[in-house]
Specification:
Layout lengths: L3 H17 L3 H29 L4 E8 L2 H10 L6 H7 L4 E7 L2 H13 L4 E7 L12 E8 L8 E10 H17 L8 H31 L1
Parallel strand pairs: 2-5
Antiparallel strand pairs: 1-2, 3-4, 4-5
Bound molecules: ligand 0O2.
Length: 221
């Protein structure tokens, strides 16, 4: 439990953070990153549509992280809430989520971004081959792209999450359900719920595999 004083300090730090991330300079930089990545992704998806005759990408979503969410994440990682720590310690102040139809499309998109000369992959995590304990699946890329409107050589860092429609369905519900049970973590039965969620992630993964197999059979007809 935090004291009233600790809560007041926390609120003040979040307020300062919110001010810093709403400056024109900050919003312009990260929005630029999102726009560039989004146009690369949709451009590639369109070119695939012409060559493969089907849509690779179901949707592209993006967001700038809120001050509250930045504060939670900094605290979770053991850092004080500050703008400097947000910039230095977090890689997902700006995030782009690519939702693909099939699992092989996820890896096509992953490969496409990794091969681009104007995208530097700082970190890659394959939570499809190695799902998280929760059952979460996605490919995550932390990427740097040039920011020509800034200082010479300045980069903008973003997180790209690539997943299938089915993985996205699970992640969205998990996010909602875990959020709702967050303050009930120690209650009896939460372990059972997490175990069930994990088993549903596996069922969804099986369906993804079956749908991919079905598509391949159809392509051979
Ligand atoms: P939000 O609100 O979605 O933005 P690291 O980058 O390695 O220092 P980080 O950023 O925790 O540490 O990386 P990680 O574990 O790869 O996860 C980053 C994001 O993936 C999370 O961002 C979520 O969006 C998503 N994610 C990870 N695990 C889960 C999970 O079990 N369930 C769901 N639904 N999503 C998950 P945020 O900032 O935690 O949350």
């Amino acid at each position: 439990m935090r004291s009233q004083r600790e809560l007041a300090i926390r609120d003040e730090r979040i307020r300062e953070l919110a001010e810093n991330i709403s400056t024109k300079q900050f919003v312009q930089k990260y929005s630029y990153g999102i726009t560039i990545l989004e146009s690369m992704i949709t451009g590639y998806s369109k070119s695939c549509e012409q060559t493969m005759g089907r849509s690779l990408v179901d949707s592209v979503l993006y967001r700038l992280k809120t001050a509250e969410s930045i504060a939670d994440k900094l605290e979770k990682k053991g850092y004080e809430i500050s703008f400097t720590n947000a910039i230095e310690q977090l890689s997902d102040l700006a995030g782009v989520r690519v939702v693909c139809s099939f699992c092989d499309d996820v890896y096509r998109m992953d490969e496409f971004l990794r091969q681009r000369k104007d995208v530097t992959v700082y970190r890659r995590k394959d939570y499809i081959r190695h799902p998280k304990e929760s059952g979460y699946r996605s490919v995550h890329l932390i990427v740097d792209i040039d920011y020509p409107l800034g200082r010479t050589g300045e980069k903008v860092r973003l997180e790209v999450q690539i997943r299938t429609v089915a993985m996205n369905y699970w992640a969205k519900l998990d996010h909602q359900l875990c959020y709702k049970t967050e303050d009930k973590r120690n209650r009896h039965g939460i372990g059972q719920i997490r175990q069930e969620l994990r088993s549903y992630a596996e069922e969804i993964c099986d369906i993804d595999k079956k749908m991919l197999a079905l598509r391949k059979r159809i392509e051979e007809i």
